[in-house]
Every structure is written in C-alpha cells, then in structure tokens.
Specification:
Elements: E1 4-5, E2 11-12, H1 18-46, H2 48-73, H3 80-105, H4 109-114, H5 126-143
Antiparallel strand pairs: 1-2
Helix pairs in contact: 1-2, 1-3, 2-5, 3-5
Length: about 140
C-alpha cells in the first residue's frame, strides 16, 4: 500500500495500524471482563460509585500496561503522526463501542453522554483520554 503524506511531510503507513487494532480488540475484552468484575465483585462490596471509580482505575492501569508492553516490543518505529492516529482510532472505536452497546441495551444517549460529566463526579473520561495519549507517550518514549 502506498503511504499517505500527513501535514509536516511525515508519511502515514496504513499497514502499521493492524497490530494496534488487534491490541484494541484485546483492550475491549479486558474492558468487558473489568465491567463484569465491577458488577459482580466490586459494587456489592464497596457500592456503585466507589466500584465505578476503582473499576475505571483498574482499566486505565490495564491500558497503560498493555500499551507500554506493546510499544516496548513492537518492531515498528511509529512516527509521531502514526501514534496520534493510533490513539485517535482507539478512542473513536471505544466511544463508538460504548454508544453501540448502550443502544443495544436500550440506554438513552443522554445517560451515555452523562458518563463523561466530570462536574457530576464521573471519572469514565479517564479511559478515552488514556487510550488517546498512551500510544503517543509510550510509542514516543520507546522510540527515543
């Protein structure tokens, strides 16, 4: 496949996104297992809000660990632009998946959007932010 030139002249090589997309699938499975852990074990023991906060923290930690391991051992030398694209893809896929699951479950869109309301004490925003910045942070760090 031909590379696409991004702003700044850095080529974006489409083939380098296959492995990060595979990792996103792994992260999605980890998130589903984490949600089950939250509902079955955490919430009954510590309550809904504390369980949600702990679960979010565990998911953020898992994303960071998976990201650092992937970029540490990846044979691909990602450009900064490619790392931003990876983070963007992970974020868009995750938010889209969340809205799709909400739709299938019959959850109103307003409820799903409400999970991003930091002023109401919601912490979920940490997950998409971590997904966006982890590739740039660890890909750049490992590449130096």
């Amino acid at each position: 496949m031909a590379s696409i030139l991004a702003s700044g002249g850095q080529p974006i090589r489409p083939h380098v996104f296959l492995a990060p997309l595979g990792l996103w699938v792994v992260l999605a499975i980890v998130a589903i297992v984490n949600g089950g852990f939250r509902e079955v074990l955490l919430i009954p023991r510590v309550g809904r809000y504390t369980g949600h906060v702990l679960s979010t923290g565990l998911l953020v930690a898992a994303i960071l660990v998976c990201s650092v391991l992937y970029f540490r051992w990846s044979p691909v030398a990602y450009t900064r632009t490619e790392l931003v694209v990876v983070g963007g893809l992970w974020t868009v896929l995750t938010v889209g998946f969340e809205f799709l699951v909400g739709y299938i479950e019959g959850t109103p869109v307003s409820v799903t959007i409400g999970q991003y309301d930091v002023l109401a004490g919601e912490v979920w925003i940490a997950v998409p932010l971590t997904l966006f910045f982890a590739p740039l942070l660890f890909g750049w760090y490992q590449g130096t």
